[in-house]
Amino acid sequence: MKKITPEQLASEIMAFYNEYDLRIAGKINDQTAYQLIETIEQKFKTDSLRLSDGTKIWNLMRVFLYSNFQKLGEQTINKKLSKTSIKSVISLFKESFIPLRLPKNITVCGFSSGESRKLYKDTYYDIYLDPLYEILGDNLAVFEWPETSGYRRKYDHPIFSRYHVPMHVPLWSKTFWNLLFNRFTGRKNITLESEDVLQDIIEYISTTASVDKDKLTSDIYDFITVFTHIKHFLYNILKKIKPKAVLIRCGYGRFPMALSQACRELGIPPIELQHGLITAYLPAYRRATPTTNKDCIPEYLLTHGEIYAEMVRNGNLFDADKVISTGYPYLQRTLMERKTLPALKQSFSPFPHNILFTSQWIIAKDIQGYILKVAEQFAKHNMDVGILFKPHPYDKNDYSGLKQNKHIILIDKYDDIFTLFNIADIHSTVYSTSGLEAMAFGTPNIFIDIYSLTKDNRTSYITTTPAQFVNTVKTILSHYQDSIVEAKAIADLFFTKNPEKHFEKFFTDLGINQKISVREKVYR
Q: ∠ at Cα 40 (37, 46), nearest 5°?
């Protein structure tokens, strides 16, 4: 049998990712968001949708249609939702009393959130922005939003970021009261041009995708309203700070898209740092037909690797020359510092071999059921293998019941997955980007085709049934060194080497001064 090359394996893995993002992450009942958006763009004058200030909002709506319906099926308990909403308001209200202290003389503002911080060398380190202090020095300030619920993580170690701004909306700002009014009344206090086109689109979606029209209307107007108020808020902040560039960890969603649009209006380049998976069917990066509408999206996209960059360059949304493969600095740094610590492995698990399962909140229940069946197979075959189960940071499910199974060890959802790669013999996920990150560490990965969406896979890296999964585990462990070499070769195609060199060139080309001397923090 002809040996499959790393390039062929990478192509199969990318096709697997594409299929799951299209049919699972981007699913609206029996429709797919990407295809529904494509049809809407053919039927309606989508770029006529504008705010009263001229902002085109269709790119915002594309992201709404992709992300909002990932929560279908969860929004069933009104009472619970009401309590959650109240807790969210209380959290936001408490933070609103804290003054928002803006740094002076900052060249680059980076915007992120709490889930990006991992415990690294006894500090909480933003894995996307903090590595850039090596390049930018004191030019960089990191603005950290709380979670969408309003909850802010409590840190039991210092924060690494030299200039750290806990981002929130102050009580005395007009934005705070506009958002509060919207939250409690549900009334829109914005003006749209071509609102009749939006109503026609809502009617079409509700009919075609079998979605409740009233709820869809309410959710869309809420999405636009929050975006509008946050855009004005961020515009005023950036106008005061006057940065030369803004870095954004994840460029899609109403807050980051408000940030991108505020930057565009001020002539500040918004730059997105790839934070997760990019696929051929993710509307934030690709569309089926060309457009000149760049509103609400970042001007630049810096990707982990050329595979992602080429996908976006051909995606009809970003300017091709502004999509740049720079690599993943934190991944590269962690690889260079990697140490094998048997004692650390033993502190997590008593098993000689361990599989790290990374869950995903969209399909969390199905993954939970799958690993229970895998654990049954391990017991049936008397395999001395442990399962380290790590929920996604957004996952709110309670997995305490899994502890009753002797093969399953529950991992904290905020634990640094790069550390966990060092103690796992094999990693497994459905379609999380952690599958590729594990391979970069030389940890063989098994992708689970949990819904049997793909056919004729030529690689054991993609499996379907729990029984097939167990056989793949046996194969990998029996040819472990070869599996490590192959995993690294595949990962090299997804992650550009020498990221620091590429970031330095990017900032130099942008005219950003680098590595200035440390100075005293000064705040407004």
A: 100
For the chain, the maximum distance between any two Cα atoms, rounded to a whole number of angstroms, is 70
Residues near 92 by Cβ (< 8 Å), separated by ≥ 6? 150, 168, 169, 179
Say what the pLDDT of residue 26 is.
Answer: 83
- Interatomic CA distance for residues 151 and 154, integer angstroms: 9
Among 39-48, 259-268, 455-464, 474-483, which is the least confidently predicted range?
455-464
Task: Please say whether the beta carbons of 300 and 324 come within 8 A.
Answer: yes
- DSSP bridge pairs for 389: 357, 410
Query: How far, in Å, CA of 362 to CA of 289, rounded?
Result: 28
- Rounded Cα–Cα distance for residues 115 and 417 (Å): 12
- Between CA 325 and CA 515, with CA 250 as vertex, the angle to 5 degrees is 60
CA atoms within 13 A on the CB side of 389: 26
In one letter, which amino acid is 46? T
Contact 258/207 with Cβ under 8 angstroms? no
What confidence score (pLDDT) does residue 72 get? Answer: 44
Q: Are 516 and 139 in contact (CB under 8 A)?
A: yes
Per-residue burial over 101-133, b if 16 or more Cβ lie within 10 Å, else e, is: ebbeebbbbbbbbbbbbbebeeebbbbbbbbbb
Q: Which two tokens stand for residue 408?
A: 């399953």
Query: What CATH code would you report for 336-491?
Result: 3.40.50.12580
CB 219 within 8 A of CB 68: yes
Question: Taking the domains of the chain in order of start, what are their residue ranges?
Answer: 8-92+170-279+500-510, 336-491
- Rounded to two decimals, what is the model's pTM? 0.91
Q: Rounded mean pLDDT of the chain? A: 90
The pLDDT assigned to 414 comes to 84
Residue 520, pLDDT > 90, answer no
How many residues can be counted in the chain? 524
Q: Which pLDDT does position 186 carry in this prediction?
A: 75
Q: Which residues pair with 323 in a beta bridge?
A: 301
Give the list of residues 6+ apart from residue 263 with CB closer than 8 angstroms, or none: 238, 246, 269, 270, 299
Which residue, 101, 103, 102, is CA-closest to 521? 103
Task: Annotate 48-73 with b (16+ C-beta within 10 A) or e (fewer).
Answer: ebbbeeebbbbbbbbbbbbbbbbeee
